[in-house]
Amino acid sequence: MSSLEIRHVSFSYLDGLVLRDIDLLVKAGERVGLLGPNGSGKTTLLKLASGLLRPTRGEIYLGDADLRQLTRRQVAQKVAVVPQQLRMPFAFSVREMVMLGRTPFVRALSSEGEADRRAVRQAMELTNTEALGNRTFNELSGGERQKVILAMALAQDPKLLLLDEPTVHLDVNHQVEILELIKALNLEKGITIIAAMHDLNLAALYFDRLILLKEGSIFANGPPAEVLTEDVIRQVYAAPVLVRQHPSADVPNVTIIPRQEA
Questions:
Q1: For the chain, which residues make up each domain, given as ranges?
Q2: What is the pLDDT of residue 259?
Q3: What confidence tens digit (pLDDT) does each residue in 14-41 have?
Q4: In CATH terms, is domain 1-78+158-227 a member of 1.10.10.10?
Q5: Which of 14, 177, 217, 230 lies 20 to 30 A from 116 at CA?
């Protein structure tokens, strides 16, 4: 398992500062939901954690290793990323897509070995995508594609799994299926999970700790009951809400109040 430590990190694009002095520790084996309005810096923070972007200021550690000192291959052998959407320009089969997850472990000019094929089989079994193996990835439904992308990430045998809105554009059944799978991977495999989420209620149900961003800074950090309060949500989202306990779980449940009734 691998922890992630972000030490006083700021990041700027050319058009301005996106993240401000982020100080965060995610311990090995945690399952963390990352929340915040559009533009608050969720995706940027995930890109920094994966090494895709470099901080303007501050340091990021993966376990004991400074992320700046690791090669892209070394990072990819420990960290897997599940993007919001992925479309391929070629007609790859599902099995070929999942095998792409083994790229960090296959030497240049070499073909995959038995260990790679075994990792792919296991990833497809975990995600229940074996029956899709010969189908073309781009022809799958949204829910099927998301499971295949997750299988590709699992084929990397990651210690840290970063997910950018893994339930976006999915129906309720597929949302629950994906989040149940993520939870099982965390509990049974010990994979550290950080997932950017928009749905506050799903985040409360499936993540033990929530981090709420506002304008590039951490506004709240803690268990769902401490983060998802009426006052906090109104301050961050500028939306009137009613927060009560979930009817069947010991977590908060957020109800949107129409503005004309607030």
A1: 1-78+158-227, 89-155
A2: 77
A3: 878 899 999 999 999 999 999 999 999 9
A4: no
A5: 177
